[in-house]
Amino acid sequence: MVHFNAQFRSFRVVIVFVLSIVVFSCRTARAEERVATEEALMRIRVIAASLEARLEMTQNVQIWIVPVDERMVSVERIHKGASADDVFIIQLDQSFLEGLNDEELQAAIAHELGHVWIFCHHPYLQTEAFANEIAMRVVSRDSMKKVYAKLWLHLGTSGDFEKLLGTETKTPANVAVAPNVIMPGRFVASRMCCW
Asked: Are 145 and 135 contacting, i.e. CB atoms less than 8 angstroms apart?
């Protein structure tokens, strides 16, 4: 019986030791994941702030990285009431975000900021095409094509670049193009949606 108790105590010590290692490893992994997410969030906020400045936006825009967003990237208006400014929250699906390079991330954020800009200037003209038109004031059409291609691949679907980005115009090499020039288009009222 004494021999059994000694073995049982040894077994308990081993179990406690193994559980301690597992718990410590999980905490360390979660801490590393949290630091990586916070670093990514800071990088994204810097990109967003730069785009907001270039679009001359003063709205309260917050950025969140979420485990799952069915639209991959979206924006939502939080109405604060008559006495307070509204808040716009841009959510990025973590797995989709991890597949974007900086150029594509800028394009995705610019698109969502396009929705915010439209809401504050022409709230009844919410369309993907109009949000892209606003976005292309600060990012290239090519960047928008790249992020849409990744989005469609991620979702297992396809779309029409011409419909979403307008007809691509060729500029002769000897003609200078003024920045921030927006080609007028036709817009249909729709609810605020993203991607």
From this structure: no
